[in-house]
């Protein structure tokens, strides 16, 4: 669910500061005692694993049950207790959620059908660490249908849907996850996935890199049997490129974050909708006539700008990259420096992947009632820390909405405390999750079945043909009819009729 | 000016049919006698060199002078006769045109200023073969100002502006080009550029590949001194990749056709405007409420669809590539097979780069008054040949507009006889030409100054940093203000403050 | 907040069926005993007064206090008990809400300032019946500042914000309203507003016509002193035109529902945003690529279509009026009959003001997961009653979201049980409420101060100049700078420099 | 073809300056000798009659024939000489043009069919004064088919298509018009239409008011038999309202200029396309990224703004009317005073209907290469006269394009010398002309057949039902399917199933 930095480079050739910090953390990590307290862990857990997360409402809601799942004895109806969830009794409700999700994930269901005969994942032992939602459940059960054995933990301490985890456990999946884990719980769950007698994973599906990290540090020998890693997030991908650069990556890894479909759908198309949704749900504002500055014109920025322009806002853009800047011009946006418009805008939206894009100085100059939010990256883009000073008053007016009040009475409206608006204040459509999940499944199949030598100990993008296949599986949703090349046309173009249809450098 | 195939792959890894034909032609070419007639040449000239071309009106227009320039004795005011143009006396008028173009090409003018001190092209001997227009003249005089010596021919037998050629000749540029060359003239001009005593080119700037081709065949030894080739067109780039694949490319070549700025501006942004312009100028039709099918959703198709949707047309899209198809869906277009809508649409537009996308069968089924045109590639997309049958009547109703009339009275409106609408029936904005020309200049500088070994005998894309530099030179046109990274931000992102800002695979 | 029928005529020259029903009800109404039970009233209360209503969350929420406000003894801090609200102690919280609303209603605040000196409502005794929200409070306190005395009841049994009512009562406004009134309470509150010793209203501000209706039936003599009625809703305006037509309207009435600003802002611009908001909040769906049919292309339909098209949906339109139909065509929408597309669409949205636009037959033919909602009028547009049959299963999946399940497993997703999506599932921006409230204030001032004879016993539209004034008061919100005519220009155009600027028939 | 003032009021209640001037002219007019020279007439001819006019290219072009048509003796093939055209021999070519136009005017053709049986214009003697084009010919022949006798003159001295006039004369229509009339010719032609023995008109179809004016002054007694006037232009309508106001209008008149379809199609939808077309044809500029200021946000301004925004321009708006100003805000345009942006914009477009909107002072401050053009009204909006001063140099660079050069070398690009860009530099789609012509035909039928007393000596708008009928006749062009009300729905809405569907004040 994380977003590819739009404005920033995710270049594999540089070592950004935060990665260096991360490297430092790992050193500290090694010194850690086995029984780790919350404090000592706080810097080594990935940022994404503690992001606030607004999942679909949990229908059965919080029981008053305060017992930690780790202290409970639970068994599913088949007698297995190889799992740890909040409450196995919620399984039925979770099953219904999964069934609804199945209806909206036709690509995975089609994959189940098409690939079921040959069981392309027969023998695969997949350990996974992702958000645990109904959509993930559909992915896991698809992997199972394709022949794989799976063990699963959550990649975020808040995002697990307990009912879904229960349903998976009831179906026999060893799931270790619940909503509201402590950081100690977090690592305990991951460890329970991998540290099990008589079972060793040969594939990793990771979201954020924490699982990969754990195995590297605790069970490096496991990599001897592991055929590959599939990683979805920007953060995890960065970590992998760093390992690769440092010569420490010992298995092939697939960067599915940068696949075309994920980039365009997760970022451009999804943000085009979620910026409107996030702003409306939090502020009920009217978009028409509002002046907005969007920092960064990558895919996320492009989506935000297009949506707001369409709703009648007047949009300014800031950029550091002259090519993206020129695109903004041609798309009809005034390209400015933030300082030029900061006094006049009604909304400030960051989508840069950078840090301190909005500084205290900017915040000081904003006009009364200005709304500030972050669509880009983690919680670094707005210097929220600078607002935690005695002369400013914070007033929580709604969930995820704070008024920060200056001594002269000026208020700015800060959303989600500067964390990602689209994760915190809107929901991600199942359709987008379906694309991501299908990509993950195909990447696992590719890595698992690749002939010896096709993939080295490096980070790869998904083969274009697979990217195209993911797209083709989603076309029926739109009742879309693809044209097929005639033999004559394929010959003329020098293409295989089944693709791939574009050179690797094609930009879409 | 040619357009990158949108739908088709320009893959370097396949050998399309037409390239193989081209290879055959070259063999035939070798057997040719020195004095070649029009007929024998007709297959070996590149397609683009005979495309019809709608340049800005020539103000001094056709003199009645029917003498071939090759038979004239002309000198410029400095006494030189090392050129061949229609009429050297038109120089003054051409100079005014060049001056107007200079005003609209601020990037090249800035380049002159910035690089003039160091003369980065000092010693360069550039032979060029491009359209000869006021904009090209600004490029040539910029190259001169940077230290280069230039000799130039036209890449298209129709596109030369005689006044501009005269002005260049008057200024001392050996130019060999006029409007309405025969094919024999065409090669004669090219030969005059390269086959000159005491001067040997060390750089090639080509558009279409004919110049490169000629040197390969006639003066292969010249390549010993040539530092590199810069090629702009799809066709020329294909030829280069083919040479490279065949191991016959003996100098580095720069593919500027696939640079980001060229792709996005020449295709997406330029076609967004030229589709409307081309249709209006030829048919005066109203766009609102019209049903349109656009074949191909590459950059060109995306531009056409966006423009027509914005003008109130109802747009259908056909595609062969599932990723582009999914983009069309998300952008709000019904994805269909051509057959599904062919009976109901008012306009058919091809942007595929493919052949026979619109067949006689499709044409038979179109409704009365349906407009058919090609925005994609050469003249292959619509099977125009199939309309040259006795039962159909052709009626020329305007320049570039034919009614083809069926026996039952049904008419379809065929534009530009199926050749490129945007070349034939609209003009290319100077701003776009400025981007292309600046890219060419930078590519020449890069190749000429690259340290030994940076470039091998292969085809390269322009380094991203140069692409970014071209963009940055054009931002002042829009009064656009770029943001600079702070040191802290650059460190955080692991980027150099001056770029490049994106990894090579970034899609924009 | 009600919306002007988009597709239907609100013609004053016809007597629609439901008005006749209403006339019948009034007869029955007369026979009613004084102490009326819920049942007997159920048909005489206006539709709008029981519409479900999603106001901003009440922050202090439901106390467990189950005592009816009518049975409580409450006094404000000044000792007055001439009010009836849920809990006077919530006044402070309500005051804060009012203060926040004041910041977003600059036009009313400007009106307070500009008109305060002259007190244009000095002597006015206004009885009002509207939604009681923070925005209404700003209106009431503005009326007070302009010199008026006010007494107020709620026009909807659900929509009162108790804290705001408390704050108004605390400030000395006799307010009779709480959230969750019974229908008996509803009339009791209205009666308490008008039936008071020593005070008789001379102005009416109504929303829905219930207050006017009550005075007509119970205190017809009051009209002798009443200078005019200002009515905001479609329903109330219909009632007034009917009275006028029947010769029974005995005071001038101002139809502010059809003022330009209200029409365009409440309908076109507001719905452009609320359709997206309503759909997202209820279903989390993705708009891109979805096929949608919008029934009715009036202002509401135009807003819905524009928004969905901008988000990448493919939109079809149905219409009965050929002019609106032609507009839909020119705006780029396929004009169809509902039957033509009902099997293929993902979403059905009604905006017609008509009844049974979506019938059971249509519902039977929709595809699985089709979403059905109403943006038009009351709850008549979708024949929801036809879905209450034994073979269909209803499943409430979220607040305002029902799955209706066919025997074969097909589900349709019905939003807000067919009532207004924008009232039930999204919020109305303060900016729109500000326009409406300002219009109401100006209409009251105009009617109250109009010289004898300017207005007869008829229904009037707001004078254009006032409409323009409302607009001008809202321009500063957008930092918009109006151009002034020079004397010469005004003379040339034959206009007064201060307006009105358009003839009455101008369509904007 | 003229456009309804967008920004200005066409109020019937004011007497603008130019109308007063016109009244003065009429006095002078009376004193004129019979044989009038060019000079003396120059102020009494309507502005629109001398507007430059870009009609579709005349295919047979200018013969060298310099003889005035008035001095020629011509007969058609039936022996009649009751006409005066350039060359009767061009009839065949004109007939083909008419036949092509018939294909694109299905509404008139449908009207011929539907109304032919009953001949609703039997007995009508219509004198007309309009542009004489193929489209007008289709109108005239439709009127003939409906039973009317017609005599016709041109309303503009430049706009007549000679071939079409010849074809009409050949078919027996007494037509008096040719391209390039002198002003004396202009009035002579009109006089030949009305001053004929044994024939007296009983209906007038006018465009600009010159014909009406002539009859008023020369043959006032004719009005005794005249049943009504149908007038299309803003200018003519103004004149009629002035007559009405002065109590001098002695027959009913129909203002078809303000019919809904004409307003929306001729202005909003047509200008949305013609602004792009006009700018491209004259300047070949690129729209993307350009800064544009549009003066006036009426229908014309709305169309221009929407089109340019869609093409990626950054658009500012100026307005005098706060309601239109607020619409501009909500549609996403910065509302400014011209002075605020005049230094930075690349294009200035006037659409106000006002005079001197762009003054010399503004022109002095524009930046180099700024393009200035008028989409609004006549030639008054830009103070072009102020540019005719010695220090400025004018350079004609293309047809309709002048560079005006300041002493410091700054150039502005003035299009069409400040006259209407869309008349001068683009063409009007047949579809729009079809709507206008159909409206005119229906207005004639309505006035001719109206029962005694339905229309007084006043100016009327077309009955809404007729407006709806015009629209419905054009729906088949778009394959658009109208929905019909059920009996139950019609009853519910209180509407007739056949319309009218909206109250008169409905704004669309």
Automatic annotation (TrEMBL), chains A, B, C, D:
Its cofactor is NAD(+). Residues 29-81 are annotated as: Disordered. Residues 267-428 form the S-adenosyl-L-homocysteine hydrolase NAD binding domain. Belongs to the adenosylhomocysteinase family. Residues 32-41 have a biased composition (Basic residues). This is Adenosylhomocysteinase like 2. The lineage of its organism: Eukaryota, Metazoa, Chordata, Craniata, Vertebrata. InterPro entries: Adenosylhomocyst_ase-like_sf (IPR042172), Adenosylhomocysteinase-like (IPR000043), Ado_hCys_hydrolase_NAD-bd (IPR015878), NAD(P)-bd_dom_sf (IPR036291), S-Ado-L-homoCys_hydrolase_CS (IPR020082). One of its GO terms (biological process) is S-adenosylmethionine cycle. NAD(+) binds at residues 298-303, 319, 422. It comes from the Eukaryota. Residues 42-61 have a biased composition (Low complexity). Pfam families: AdoHcyase, AdoHcyase_NAD. Keywords: NAD, One-carbon metabolism. Binds 1 NAD(+) per subunit. The gene is AHCYL2. GO terms for cellular component: cytosol. Substrate binds at residues 133, 207, 232, 262, 266.
